[in-house]
Design a protein that fits this description.
The protein has helices at 2-30, 38-48, 81-93, 110-116, 129-137, 184-194, 226-237, 247-254, 271-279, 314-343, 351-360, 368-388, 391-411, 417-430, 437-472, and strands at residues 55-62, 68-75, 123-126, 141-145, 151-154, 200-207, 213-220, 266-268, 283-287, 293-296, 474-475, 478-479. The protein is α+β, with helices and mostly antiparallel strands. The chain has four domains: 1-28; 31-154, no CATH class; 184-298, no CATH class; 314-475, no CATH class. The protein has a five-stranded antiparallel β-sheet, with helices on both faces. Strands 6-7-9-10-8 form a five-stranded antiparallel β-sheet, with helices on both faces. A two-stranded antiparallel sheet has the order 11-12. It starts with a helix and ends in a 55-residue tail after the last strand. The model is unreliable at 4-8 (pLDDT under 50).
Length: 534
């Protein structure tokens, strides 16, 4: 028995060792400098790419007497062949024929070709095979010349991407209708269109051993805290994975409290929201391939704010914000309070209402907590099915399923009518604060179980534990409950209600790093009939 285990361990160790040696060999081979022998370079590249069918290697001769040899390498599905033919091949193969024979040009020098023949602006020289392969796999075209130890990387134009349209997850009534797309260069352009200052910094990282995903940190140098930017860079540099396919990967690798149910990094599809946060001193992380942009640090109160609050007058915006707070309370505590009152604290319910509840539950065979759990579980199933199915089918399934199941359950005596009302109210309220949908769903079940076990006492203990947990959270050093804990009266102007814009003249104290440039606007902007501020 022990001999078999020893052989198995030895086999696995040798297998891992061989795999490690193979990876080291490939890495060493990729890091070699480019050879001056064109044939050797092509042979090495073909070997590394395993003769992939979508990789084109086009060899050609050019010059007056066709004595120079060259090769173009590109991936068919990632380049515009017409642009390559017009701006690279034609100047090299036919343009050189038109040059005066008396002009002696050494076309083995990449700089000579780059300055005299290539009309495409986006190009650069590389000397290492690894850099050549990285650019090739990113969609660039590679020009190799026999006799040159350098290669020319040519980016032949913009790649195909989705058109800029309104974000599907953050629709508003008043405000811009543009949203981020999967092309990170387009997303950076959308931010630069709104922030036209020279100290808007865009720093690039490449993460993912296999995906080589482009990731950008965007911030205003004179406003953002240098320690925040340094911490973000440190956390990003620690990430060693095969691939980054979406911003959620980055979020889970750099967040402060990975075991918390509350998000400590916000995300958005809206350029105006991202720009507003950057102007406050925050930093944004843009990932190529996803429209969702990460913003940090984040505080809990941001979940109840919307960019539309600042586009409308403060009175309606304040009422809507209070409604969001009440909706979150209803969505998390609604079923728990119902179970606690009907099971443990009937004396708190008015007599007429208590009689109505008793009549409704007369035929129900399940205890109140089991009834609530079944209804909530059914609602979550319908919600998940509605999201995953096509829009035309998903909406029908959600509406019809809820009506049919609810009515049939009540008529069959499995669910009381008041429970259908409670769960329906909870379901509607949960959509009012989408940023906290995940935490609200988990808390809803936790509070419900506590209410079924200990009534109101259990709910209160759960609330205290939640508040203690929220108070302990940090997002890149910023207290999660700011400006409530620690208390900041200036920050309260934009918390439960939204004060007029002309009263909010400072950036958030918890985020700015000094008094330098701490004012977002002049403090004397209050409108007056005579045109003079107060």
């Amino acid at each position: 028995m022990f001999g078999y285990i020893f052989k198995k361990i030895r086999y696995l160790s040798l297998k891992n060792k061989d795999k490690s040696m193979l990876q080291d060999t490939i890495a060493k081979k990729n890091s070699e400098p480019i050879s001056s022998d064109l044939e050797r370079n092509l042979e090495v590249i073909k070997g590394i790419l395993s003769d992939s069918s979508d990789v084109t290697i086009h060899e050609f001769n050019f010059g007056h007497d066709r004595r120079f040899k060259g090769a173009l390498i590109f991936i068919n599905s990632m380049v515009d062949k017409e642009e390559i033919h017009k701006n690279v091949l034609q100047p090299l193969m036919y343009g050189t024929l038109l040059l005066n024979k008396d002009i002696d040009m050494d076309f083995t020098q990449i700089d000579t070709i780059r300055r005299n023949l290539i009309s495409m602006i986006d190009n650069l020289k590389v000397t290492l095979l690894s850099d050549l392969l990285d650019n090739l796999l990113a969609g660039a075209t590679i020009l190799l010349i026999d006799g040159s130890k350098e290669a020319l990387v040519i980016n032949p134009g913009k790649r195909e991407s989705r058109a800029i349209d309104e974000p599907g997850t953050e629709a508003i009534v008043r405000g811009p209708r543009e949203g981020f797309s999967e092309n990170v260069n387009v997303n950076i352009a959308l931010i630069r269109q709104k922030i036209k200052v020279p100290d808007l910094c865009v720093e690039k990282f490449i993460i993912g051993d296999k995906s080589k995903t482009d990731i950008f940190i965007v911030y205003i140098k004179s406003v953002a805290n240098p320690k925040l930017i340094e911490e973000i860079k440190k956390r990003l540099s620690r990430i060693k994975v095969d691939a980054i396919l979406e911003s959620g990967y980055i979020e889970q690798f750099i967040e402060d409290n990975p075991y918390s149910i509350f998000p400590t990094i916000s995300h958005t599809e809206r350029p105006d929201k991202a720009v507003a946060k950057i102007l406050e001193g925050r930093a944004a992380i843009l990932i190529d391939g996803t429209p969702f942009v990460l913003i940090m640090p984040m505080v809990f109160i941001e979940s109840f704010q919307s960019v539309e609050d600042y586009y409308s007058r403060p009175f309606l915006a304040s009422i809507v914000r209070v409604i969001r707070f009440l909706s979150y309370i209803i969505s998390t505590l609604g079923p728990a309070i119902y179970v606690a009152l009907t099971v443990f604290h009937q004396e708190l319910i008015p007599t007429q209402l208590l009689i109505s509840i008793a009549n409704g539950r007369e035929r129900v065979p399940f205890p109140a907590i089991l009834e609530a759990l079944l209804m909530l579980f059914t609602f979550d199933i319908l919600r998940e099915a509605g999201v995953r199915l096509p829009k035309s089918v998903g909406q029908t399934v959600g509406i019809v399923g809820a009506i049919v199941l609810g009515q049939a359950s009540v008529e069959a005596g499995l669910i009381s009518p008041i429970m259908v009302i409670v769960v329906s109210s909870t379901a509607i309220a949960s959509f009012a604060v989408p940023a906290q949908t995940g935490s609200g769903t988990i808390l809803r079940y936790i509070y419900l179980v506590l209410a079924g076990l200990a009534g109101g006492f259990g709910v209160i203990m759960g609330l205290l534990a939640t508040l203690l947990h929220l108070a302990s959270l940090r997002s890149f050093g910023v207290p999660y409950l700011w400006p409530i804990a620690p208390l900041d009266f200036s920050g309260l102007k934009d918390t439960f209600i939204r004060m007029p814009l002309w009263t909010v003249s400072k950036r958030p104290k918890a985020i700015v790093w000094s008094d330098f440039d701490s004012y977002k606007q002049s403090p004397d902007l209050m409108p007056s009939p005579n045109g003079e501020g107060n």
